[in-house]
Write a structure and sequence with these properties.
alpha/beta
Length: 295
């Protein structure tokens, strides 16, 4: 009972935050991130290991500074969800700019299913809301252990239009059917989910267990793959969601080559804003047979 009461109190406080102007909320979020950098030792160490693997050319102090900047963007992303979940539609349309949405509309208008390749940047949830404001879309979510927060997450992501959220446990058939019905699929495939349905391909030169879903789903649905990268702007200026051009010659006949291409694209995007990538995830926890653990 106490845990439920504390959860409700936390949600009430979180709700109050959405009344603040975004620039103020951004400053609070950055300071929260610096606090988490000090207190969340496990996640800090994961981020530092990832950065040492992916940016060996940096000095130790440079990596620490990058990790701190990363936690600042993560702190912002936590607090700014209050606006994403409770802010008015017009406010969100002003804060989340989508560049290139006509590319999605053109494909959907021609009857072509669409997969939006959305890497795990700090602005990921804002990008999802930006798409949901403009399209009846499809996405996959991970169920939260806390039932109240899980319900809050679902309501927040389904506020606009007719959004379809599927759990990771639901089969590919439902996803393919929804794409063929005209829902662009906001897809996040850059997580280490273990050996199942994964292959080892390079990510920053490190062999990373990577799910092959992008290639397999594109083939099964006859879908076009479009990059969808969300950038968090400095100073609480909002977000920009950039829709790229549809990939050509994808999928190929080689699933592993397709997955390698995906990782290469994500790596290139990360290099443009490394402080905003989700470095606190153990991206290299699954190792090829015989290799030592990295964390």
């Amino acid at each position: 009972m106490l845990s439920r009461a504390l959860s409700r109190a936390a949600i009430a406080l979180f709700w109050l935050l959405h009344f603040l102007p975004l620039p103020i909320l951004a400053v609070l979020g950055e300071n929260l991130g610096l606090l988490l950098y000090r207190l969340a030792g496990h996640r800090r160490n994961v981020a530092l290991v990832n950065l040492s693997l992916c940016f060996p050319e940096l000095e130790e102090q440079e990596r620490k500074a990058l990790a701190q900047a990363n936690f600042k963007t993560l702190g912002r992303s936590i607090l700014e969800r209050s606006i994403l979940w409770w802010g008015g539609k017009n406010r969100l349309l002003r804060l989340i700019r989508v560049e290139g949405e006509e590319k999605i509309r053109a494909l959907l208008g021609s009857g072509q299913p669409v997969i939006l390749l959305a890497p795990h940047f700090a602005g990921l949830d804002a990008g999802g809301i930006g798409i949901a404001l403009r399209f009846d879309s499809l996405s996959i979510y991970s169920a939260q252990k806390n039932a109240l927060f899980n319900d809050l997450l679902l309501r927040g992501r389904k506020r606009f239009g007719d959004q379809l959220l599927l759990s990771r446990q639901e089969g590919a058939r439902t996803t393919i059917k929804a794409m063929k019905a005209g829902r662009p699929f906001y897809y996040l495939p850059d997580m280490d989910l273990g050996h199942r349905d994964s292959v080892f391909v390079p990510f920053f030169g490190i062999q990373a267990a990577t799910i092959t879903g992008l290639s397999r789903l594109a083939r099964a649905a006859g879908a076009a793959v479009i990059p969808c990268v969300t950038r968090m702007l400095p100073g609480g200026q909002g977000y920009v969601v950039k829709i790229g051009d549809p990939w050509t010659d994808f999928p190929s006949s080689d699933v592993k080559a397709d997955t390698r291409r995906m990782n290469a694209f994500i790596e290139g995007a990360v290099r443009t804003m490394p402080e905003q990538y989700y470095w606190v995830h153990r991206r290299f926890k699954t190792r090829p047979e015989g290799e030592a653990r990295l964390y």
